[in-house]
């Protein structure tokens, strides 16, 4: 009786041949890892400048992809502005970074304008939006 394996042909006539076949098959069945796979990393500054730049590039692409997906799925308007470790600016916005920044700054000026209103008007606003106590009904 003979068994063919990818390594060579073994004739099963003696016990040592059986041992050789089982060792060869175990070696073939073991899978070698070519990489360490996805590893958990500590969230701290990467000291190596080249590794830091690579991490920035990969993570920037991931953040921008997620923001674009959020915009498509939920109709969100967003702006992202980032500077690489080398100081190069990157931005992405929907519909555009300029329109989002202008809208953000206008919204801030409206809030600042509310703070300049008379104290009585602010008190009325606070009362209007304060939580209402529930009445205690007793029978």
Outline = elongated
Oligomeric form: single chain
- Poorly predicted parts: none
According to DSSP, the number of beta strands is 4
- Tally of individual helices: 4
Going by CATH, what is the homologous superfamily of the domain at 49-128?
Answer: Transcription factor, MADS-box
Question: What is the CA-based Rg, rounded?
Answer: 33 Å
Largest sheet: 2 strands, antiparallel
CATH topology of the domain at 49-128: SRF-like
CATH architecture descriptor of the domain at 49-128:
3-Layer(aba) Sandwich
Q: Element order, helices and strands?
A: EEHHEEHH
Query: In CATH's first tier, which class of the domain at 49-128 applies?
Result: Alpha Beta
Q: What is the averaged pLDDT score?
A: 76
Separation, N- and C-terminal Cα atoms = 95 Å
Keywords: DNA-binding, Nucleus, Transcription, Transcription regulation
GO cellular component, one term: nucleus
Protein name: MADS-box domain-containing protein
Domain MADS-box: 36-96
Blueprint of the fold:
Layout: E1 2-4, E2 9-11, H1 15-29, H2 49-74, E3 78-83, E4 89-94, H3 97-115, H4 119-129
Antiparallel strand pairs: 1-2, 3-4
Structure description:
With 139 residues, this protein is of the alpha+beta class. The chain has a domain of 80 residues: SRF-like, CATH 3.40.1810. It contains four helices and four strands, in the order ββααββαα. The strands form two sheets. The protein has a two-stranded antiparallel ribbon with strand order 1-2. The chain is elongated. The N and C termini lie far apart (95 Å). The model has no long low-confidence stretch (mean pLDDT 76).
């Amino acid at each position: 009786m003979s068994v063919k394996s990818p390594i060579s042909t073994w004739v099963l006539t003696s016990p040592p041949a059986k041992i050789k076949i089982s060792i060869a098959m175990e070696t073939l069945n073991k899978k070698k890892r070519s990489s360490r796979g996805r590893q958990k990393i500590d969230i701290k500054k990467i000291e190596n400048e080249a590794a830091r730049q690579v991490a920035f590039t990969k993570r920037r692409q991931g953040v921008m992809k997620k923001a674009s997906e959020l915009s498509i799925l939920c109709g969100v308007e967003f702006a992202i502005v980032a500077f690489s470790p080398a100081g190069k600016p990157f931005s992405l916005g929907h519909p555009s970074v300029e329109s989002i920044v202008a809208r953000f700054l206008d919204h801030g000026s409206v809030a600042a304008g509310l703070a300049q209103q008379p104290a009585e008007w602010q008190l009325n606003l606070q009362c209007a939006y304060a939580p209402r106590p529930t009445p205690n009904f007793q029978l």
